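Q: Focus on the chain.
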Amino acid sequence: MTDRRFTFVIASARRDGNTEFLMRKAADHLPPECRQQWLHLMDLPLAPFEDIRHSVGVYPQPEGNERILFDATLNATDLVFGVPLYWYSVPYSAKLYLDYWSAWLRVPGADFKARMAGKTLWGVCALSDEDFSHADPLIGTLRLTAEYLSMGFGGVLLGYGSKPGDVVSDTSALSKAATFFAQSPTRLAAQ
């Protein structure tokens, strides 16, 4: 295995929730040579995103928490979104983080789109419904993001968990976590 650097981005509004537990179970099975960085978006708040594409046209160099996320995003070979299902989509903090990717596409010298190509995007999601098709919009958000940036898409590990600790009883999800990062990602290219 080559030099893989996993950045785990936790977008839950709860610490140590079902999604994070499932993420950590999957990460436990990574080979020891894979580097891991764990970031919780609650610890790195971002200002509301302002779309200036059609007025200013370019964005300034990231600073503060935005810079931490920017650097972590570009330094990863594998980005793992820990995104519990909130109203059939990604949580607000994950959506805001992705909105900032729109800015980073327009930061002079960042070459964000070219530098994202070839990385792999993964998702881990706990949801409070046993009908996992309710996560389809969330999965679509992540898959289309990967496609737009010519990234690989590793898929989304789904687990059932409503109340804290519920996912521990989802033996199917825990079993899938053991081999989740061993699967080959789908290579996507922008249409």
Notes: Residues 5-187 form a domain with the Rossmann fold fold (CATH 3.40.50.360).
